[in-house]
C-alpha cells in the first residue's frame, strides 16, 4: 500500500497535521492541492461515500468530531483498508491523549507526528498494534519523569 499523504483538518478547512511521503510535490503545489482536496471533501454530505478522486490520487477521508482525517493514495489501492488505518490512527491518538481533539493535535504536534511515523514508513503501513505504537512514547515520558 502506498500512502502519499495524511492530512488532519478541522471543520473550517485549516490543516492541523500534514504528512507527505510523495516528495515530487513542491511546498507551493502541496498548499494548492491541500486547499483543493479540503474544499472538495468538506463540501460533501454525510450521505456520500468517503472516497474521492483528485488528480492522480484517490483520497479517503473520515470525520471524527471536529477533525477530518484525509489520506491520499495511489489510485489502485484498497479504500476500505485505508478506512481501517484511519480508524486505528484515531484509536491510537485517543488512547494516548484520552479522547483526542483538535487542541491535542495543535499543542502536541510532534507527538502526533511521532504516532503517525510509528504507524507508517515510506507510505507503507508498518504497525497497527496500539500498544507497540505507544510504547516508545510511554518509555520516553517515564525516562523524563524519574520521580514517578
TrEMBL record:
Q: Which residues form the AP complex mu/sigma subunit domain?
A: 2-140
Cellular compartments annotated: Endomembrane system
Using the record, list the residue span of the signal peptide; answer none if the entry has no such feature: none
Principal location class = membrane
Name the domain of life this protein comes from.
Eukaryota
User: InterPro entries annotated for this entry?
Assistant: AP_complex_ssu (IPR016635), AP_mu_sigma_su (IPR022775), Longin-like_dom_sf (IPR011012)
Quote a single Gene Ontology cellular component term: cytoplasm
**Which CDD domains does this one have?**
AP4_sigma
Q: Which UniProt keywords apply?
A: Membrane, Protein transport, Transport
> Which GO BP terms apply?
intracellular protein transport
- Return the similarity comment: Belongs to the adaptor complexes small subunit family.
PANTHER family named among the record's database cross-references:
ADAPTOR COMPLEXES SMALL SUBUNIT FAMILY
Could you tell me what this protein is called? Answer: AP complex subunit sigma
Q: What is the lineage of its organism?
A: Eukaryota, Viridiplantae, Chlorophyta, core chlorophytes, Chlorodendrophyceae
